[in-house]
Every structure is written in structure tokens, then in C-alpha cells.
Amino acid sequence: MTRKPNMESSIYLGSDGWWHGRVTMGVKPDGSPDRRHRRAKTEPEIKRKVRELEKLRDEQRAPKAGRVPTVAQWMNTYLTTIASLKLKPRSLDDYWSKTRNDIIPGVGQHRLNKLEPEHLETMYAAMLREGHAPSHVLKTHRILSRALKIAHRRRMIVENVATLVDPPTVDETETNPFTQEEAHAFLEAAAKRPTFVRWLVGVGMGFRQGETLGMRWKYVDLDTGLFHPRWQLQRLTWRHGCTDPHACGGRLHRFEPCPPACLAHKGYKRGCPKPCEKTCTKHASTCPLRKDGGLVFTRPKTKKSQEPVPIPPPFISPLRELRALQEQERAAAGELWEDHDVVFARADGRPLDPRQDWEEFKELLDEAGIDDRRLYDGSRHTAGTILNELGVPLVTIMEILRHTQVTQTRRYVKGRSEQSVEAMRRMGEAFLPQLRPSAPTSRQTNTETTNGRAARARLRRRIR
To answer: How far is the C-alpha of 172 from the C-alpha of 46, rounded, in Å?
Structure first.
């Protein structure tokens, strides 16, 4: 019996009653032959499986040798060693949150090569039934799809099944910016507080909350009237610095759900937190070696966001007064002063807390008699809309708001009904001719027709 050529597959009936197939796919990382095994009850079935493996080998799409990790294992690897090199800290926190709370409980136990589109559709439907917004489900889908795309590139799986699933459709969020009258009322209410300049800059220049609170005097040029937004203030999730995160947070682990009438979490806005998993590694805020959390200064997300922005000339004088007042507070605080060089600081020099800043925004809305809305509507969307009402070209608004595309700016600018009325008035004047004052108001005719009764009577008299 002659020996089979290299790379040729073997099919045989084993003593266990199963048909077995062995396919040579290449070599493993250590140099040994990579032989894949398949089995089936019938010979046609094993031949089909062998042909599929050979096709993947010939097309160089065969997955790597070894056991394929589960979705939970791969997501942990992806976020720890791959995504962390590219994503901003705040985005990485969001990826971890949706992975822990949605992806792992939903499909975490499936092997990557066994994951089916139906598994994802079932998970998305369950998330919607639990009350999650479609935008939340869509973001979860994109995170999982990106992780599976990397696994496909590395030949861990044959296909990214997330591309076969249609995520929920998300309607664009309706913006609700201030009108000019509401902006004046809001700033009049803010003028009674020591943080007036913070709201003047936020509403008048359209800065994000993190950019405003992270503004530093080093990057504010009052002589030339330019602000360079190089940093932003963000609150990040703490991470364990110890070697055993599970044991570190042992005293805070809670594996049983809270009773129906729980009093321990009565003040929690989102209700009682979920029970811990058996291998919980949370509670990093109590770790004695905690790191990378709390209020930190981070770089803006894009290079376009760091471009300089002109400061309106009326804003320069309040900024100079704020700087002089801050020097007095520094002298009064003495050794208690913490120098962070921030423009908007507390009495001891520390930057303002974003949570307290948000609460103050809600209080100012009540004082000004304005209905509730998002902080983003009262700052960034308001600046873009009012600039549009003042006749500023859309491309210029894009430069002021530091957007990368003008289509993004269009979503920030909301048209007003007053503008529509004025535009249609001008349209009517352009198309409808001016009416003469002496023109008759009703349709009249002085022309006699020969078919009238009077005309026929006159004609009979002439004939007689």
C-alpha cells in the first residue's frame, strides 16, 4: 500500500462506529503538523465536513489550531490587550460596562465559532424588553461586532456573525436648545452665582462640559483672544492595582439580590445594584492601590477638537476679573490651595465636580423658568443654533464647534419657526406680483354678447 501524498486527507470508519476524517491544515506555531479531526455518523456527512475544512485551508481562511475561546474570554482579552491601546479612557470604560452588563450575561458562554446570529437577536430582544433604549442596544452591537471582526482577522473564526444581524433602528435624538430669550434668562439666573463665567463660556462658546471644567489658564490667551482646548476633565472608573482583585473587594461582595423593600439603597436613582458574580473583581474604589480613576485630565477625542477657538471680546473682561478673584482665593487658602491651574476652581483650587456642575445646571433651569433639558442642549446645541439665527455660515459654525464634517454640524443646528415664517414671507413677495390699489376687487365685464336677451330684443325692434 503506497503512502498518501502530503496534505491529502484521510477518511476511515473507526472501531467506535463513527466515521473519522483527518485534514492536514499546515503547521502549528511550534512547527509540529496541524492535523484537524472531524467525525460523523455517515460517510457522506464526514466527506462534507472534510471538504469544508479543505476549502478553508485552500482559501487561507482556516481558523487557528487549538480550542476557540468563549465570547466572555475573548471580550476580556480584546478589551485588556487590544482596545485599551486605541480607545480613550472614557470610551474604554463604556466598553467594559456594556461587556459586563450585557454581552457576557447574554452570550458570554458561547464559543466564538459556535456563535449564531439567532443568539445575538435573542439577546437584543431581551435587552429591549428589559427597557434598554435602542441606542444602547445598537452601541452594544457595535462593540461586539468590532471584537468579532478582530477575531476574524486573526483567523479565530470563519465569519463575523454580527454582520448578519440587523440591530434596532435608532431615531435621531431631538435637540432642544435655548432660544435667545431663554439663554438671556438662564444667564441672568447664573449671574447671581460665583460660577457665572463658567456658564457664560459654556452657553456662549458651545464648549462641552469636560472642556469647560478642564480649561486651564495656560491655554487661555486673553491678549490675543484665543482659547486652546488641549485638555478636558473626566471622571473615570477606578481599577485595581493589587494582584488579587476578587479578594481585595471581599467585604463588599453581595451575591444575593436585595429584598423587595430594600432600605440600604433607598437613595439610589437606578435602584438596587445587581448581585455580584462568583468571580467578581469590582469594588476597585476601595482598593488601597487603586489607579487610573477619579477626576482626571484627558486629551480631547479628536485632533480637530484641539484647534483654537476665538473668545468673544465681551467675555474677556469677566475672565480677567475671575483670574484676579482666584488669586485672592489662593492667598486666602494658603497651604490648603491645590494648584491645578484650572480656570473654574473650587475654593481650594481643585476643579469643579462634573456631578455638582450638572446639578447646578438643573437648578438654574428652575430659577430661570425653563423646562427641563439636557446640559448638551443648553450649551453646545444652543451655541450652534443661535449662531445660525445670526446668519453665520454653516462652515464657520463647524469651525467654531470644531466638528470634522459639516453634516455633523447640521445635526447641532435646529431651525426655528420664526425663521420659517420670515423665509416664506420673502418667498411670497418674490413670486406674487404687487396688486394695484385701483384694481377692482370683484370680477366685472362690460362687453355685451350677441346672445344676451337685451341684444336679441334690440335686434327684433330693428327688423320691425
So the answer is: 50
